[in-house]
Amino acid sequence: MSSQKTVARLSLYRRFLKILVSEEKYSVFSHELGKLSGVTAAQVRRDLMSVGYTGNPSHGYKVIDLLNCIDEFFKSTESANIILVGIGNIGRALLSYFTQGKSSINIIAAFDTDKTKINRVINGCHAYHINEMSNFINEYKVKTAVLAVPAIYAQSTAELLCELGIKGIMNFTPVRVKLNEDIYVEDMDITMHLEKVLYYSK
Amino acid sequence: MSSQKTVARLSLYRRFLKILVSEEKYSVFSHELGKLSGVTAAQVRRDLMSVGYTGNPSHGYKVIDLLNCIDEFFKSTESANIILVGIGNIGRALLSYFTQGKSSINIIAAFDTDKTKINRVINGCHAYHINEMSNFINEYKVKTAVLAVPAIYAQSTAELLCELGIKGIMNFTPVRVKLNEDIYVEDMDITMHLEKVLYYSK
DNA sequence: TAGATTGTTAATCGATTAACAATC
DNA sequence: TAGATTGTTAATCGATTAACAATC
Question: What is the pTM of this model?
């Protein structure tokens, strides 16, 4: 099992490998890939080893094969359908980012309880009442949700998502929700991170 | 010197302490604050120790004094003026998040090179050509910037920001920019983090 | 072979957890 | 005093770095 940091770096490598393919570069050394992604060459080698891809000392790594290998590692990522819960400032911001962008990740629906926000299209995404979430999750086999509700509803909404079968949550609220061990939660508290930068900018 | 993780957690504690103040709760134990912020009681104690605040075994920590102490730790954070560089999808998303929200953090200006985007107001924030950045940074003593330009411009723009005196960068691009040691960079690659969640949701 | 890069193991580093004496 | 919480030290854990033999 790869560590969280390795998974994160593999996602980075993949992006740069795609660029290398477009530049018709067919092989790459660990230190080259490392330089692109800001990681030491040894770290790159260890990460690639952990997904079972092996290079060779004379040519390094074959870009296309390695890319396929990482794609395989992430498997269903490409066709992933995710939902957004909470259409506030941050929710709308994410919608415009993911619907307007050329990202491979699709937010298939957004949910809220506010009547003025539901049953219409917001930033290119259909918005529904949170009661309809269950149907969507079942029908589209959604496993991942973006949580962007007000802080006070974070815990209860997260618990609801778990009951409906969600396995991974990207949590944009400041609350560290407590859930079963088998649910993966990635905390993305933008304000907190920004305060960190402000602290170190002094 | 506190570790990065301690700084991050202090930012969290502060938010919950503000809530406690509004609830007129005047003292708090480490395990209570820990439960709110999803941190062990021992960790909370160690973090608070590291900012020099000391509680007592019978009443725990005084909420107001502790809050003042953490505010002091973050010092100039409150009145912080920051700028945004790059008014693409993510840039606009951040603008709407920070200008519409009741955040204490102000994005005082946004910069781009695209003529269709500059010299007008976007999501409540004035947008200027990147050439005018120097004046703004000097005049408003800006030390922190949000970097949200296309990946290929990430490194060069980051270097420009350093030359103009920026000390901390919140980096929303997928590129790990290489800068002088004394510049703090916080990487916030949303797509990468989302792919991580997708991976663990399988 | 010589040179550079690879996979792999040992050493280092830092942060978290566990344990406990000191304190109100 | 008894009980709970505090500050503090030692043990644990995991990831990174350094070192090196194996390989093309």
Answer: 0.90
